[in-house]
Design brief:
With 157 residues, the chain is α+β, with helices and mostly antiparallel strands. It contains six helices and six strands; from the N terminus they run ααββαββββααα. It is globular, with a radius of gyration of 15 Å.
Length: 157
């Protein structure tokens, strides 16, 4: 176990729970890349931080809890739970997320979150869209395209 890297992951999640963007950004390498089932590939610290601002802006009252942090000299894993109200539908979401990290220069250079898209879709979007279409590739592409468009429209902070 690399205690320094484990502490960095804990600092990141603590900052996420407070929506402390400056503290989150300090955890990331300038060339960080982020990916998840919705934002498949986001490159660079500025763009990744815009993605987090967008994400936290469409989630009312985000509460996050993390656990099971493991870290070595090169990688780390963690599990976190995001609880929030999805802004566009008003629906409550409890999303279970597994994260994988890679380090460079003692900062996070790769951050990948994995969760069940179909389960998320049912919670966030409800019926009929999330329940009926949450598993289809076309619906996933629609959600991803909308998210990317919103990210592209955001001005840098």
């Amino acid at each position: 176990m690399n205690d320094r890297h484990a502490a960095l992951i804990s600092a990141f999640y603590d900052a996420l729970g407070r929506a402390d963007f400056a503290a989150m950004e300090r955890c990331y390498h300038p060339e960080v890349s982020f990916g998840d089932p919705i934002f498949q590939e986001v490159e660079g610290r500025d763009r990744v931080m815009r993605m987090w601002r967008l994400q936290l802006g469409v989630r009312d009252g985000l509460k996050s809890e993390y656990r099971d942090v493991t870290a070595d000299d090169f990688t780390a894993t963690a599990h976190w739970t995001a609880r929030y109200t999805f802004h566009s539908t008003g629906r409550e979401v409890v999303n279970e997320i597994d994260s994988l990290f890679r380090f460079e220069d003692d900062l996070i250079v790769r951050h990948h979150d994995e969760f069940d898209f179909r389960r998320w879709s049912k919670m966030a979007l409800g019926r009929p869209h999330g329940l009926l279409f949450g598993w289809t590739p076309l619906w996933r592409k629609t959600i991803r395209d909308r998210a990317t468009q919103r990210l592209d429209e955001m001005s840098p902070s």
